[in-house]
Amino acid sequence: MKRKITYSVLVVCLLSIVFFSCKKKEYTKIFYGYDYFPNNVGHYIIYECDSMVYLGSGFGKITYRYQIKEVIDSLYNNNQGQPTQRVVRYKRTSDTIPWSNILVPEKVWTATLLSSMAIRQEDNYQYVKLVFPASLNETWNGNNLNTLGAQNYEYTALNTPYDLTTINTKQNIHFDSTLTVLEIKDSSFLNYGYYFEQYAAGIGMIHRIVNVDTSSIFPPPGYSTPDTSLSTTRGVWYTETYLSSGNQ
Hints:
The protein is 9% helix and 51% strand. The longest helix has 23 residues, at 2-24. The chain has a 12-stranded antiparallel beta sheet, with no helix packed on it. The protein has a single domain (31-247), classed as Beta Barrel (YmcC-like fold), CATH 2.40.360. It has one helix spanning 2-24, and strands spanning 43-55, 61-77, 83-92, 107-113, 117-122, 125-131, 139-141, 152-165, 172-187, 192-200, 204-213, 234-247. It starts with a helix and ends with a strand. A hairpin with a 3-residue loop joins strand 10 and strand 11 (204-213). The radius of gyration is 25 Å and the shape is globular. The protein is mainly beta and 248 residues long.
């Protein structure tokens, strides 16, 4: 009887060891963030674009408003054998104008989704837009693949819900999960720059701000909006704001 009890205890101990050994081999699932950079042919996003050019003291500003439609037109292998998106951008000044009646020739950019990064080629310059796995406060050189000089990009928000209000239509759009990349936040006595992009899971980029000031007037706190009260400001304020998306 004693031997049977000893054997039973031994079996229980062995099973316990096996169980806890298996538990130790369970790994935490790594979040990569690929969903923030769609890669399917036919995916499109429509943006409302506002561009304000400040001319300096006594000259006021010039405002442009139009829409951009980006379409992943096709996939092909680049010269390194990597699957690459052919991204076609259309432009129109009003939603009453059909996209087929574009005001300027179509512009073609490219994008490449790799296991470690997402790359966009915009006007002949390649930018490392995202890195994977995505991690809050992670930094990288967004100009690593071009000749523009090193520029630190940083994840300043990750997997956060966001409500985006469009400027023209005043509609409010809710996104369950977004990430934000701060590309440039630099100021000096002579100029400052603020570039940021925001991405939504399953959609792609939903908001972009490019703010370049070449005057000696500092921007308002947070660099969130242009200071239209300063007539001496010289520079550019440009935004792309999500309107809609889908697959065609």
